[in-house]
Amino acid sequence: MKTVRMLLPFTHGVDLCAIEHAIQLAKSWSATLVVLSVISVPQERSSRGARLEHIQQSKDFLEAVKQKAARHHVTVERYEVFTSDIYQSIAMLTRELHCESIVVFVAGQKGVLLHASEIKQLIEGEIAQILMVRLEPNKSGSMRHLLEKTLSPWLRGKRRDKVLQEQECPESVAKTPVNVGTID
Question: Rounded to the nearest 10 degrees, how much is the dihedral formed by the CA atoms of 66, 71, 77, 79?
Fold first, then answer.
């Protein structure tokens, strides 16, 4: 029996709840989650390459996926690419890595892990089946929002930048049913 391979592309905004949902989706399908972090590099020769904060965000994303997948016993393959053409790189690697579907997340009108314009390109490009997961706005892993709401009494009088940098997706968000739709 052939193993299902699902691509989870990333360009910005480490979102722990989206990562948790992607891992749970892969687990429920007994799929391998192929994680692709795409770092944009300007085409101009005069540019100095990728921005350091984008590289660090990519490393953080890949590490978060690795840790969460290990906890849930989900097989993960991780890739990182530097490119000036995000769509073309995702399309090429989807084919080369034999992924049947691409998992994308949206919250309201915004893309999660990818920009909305990048999601639109993937849908229009018909590279593979698109699994679109709609997360509730403000529950899409915005840890700052959730922590400030939960810990606001404790934070009064303290510096807000001392808040934990990583926290598990709250149980209520992780188990909240999400709307998963497929687009062929």
Answer: -10
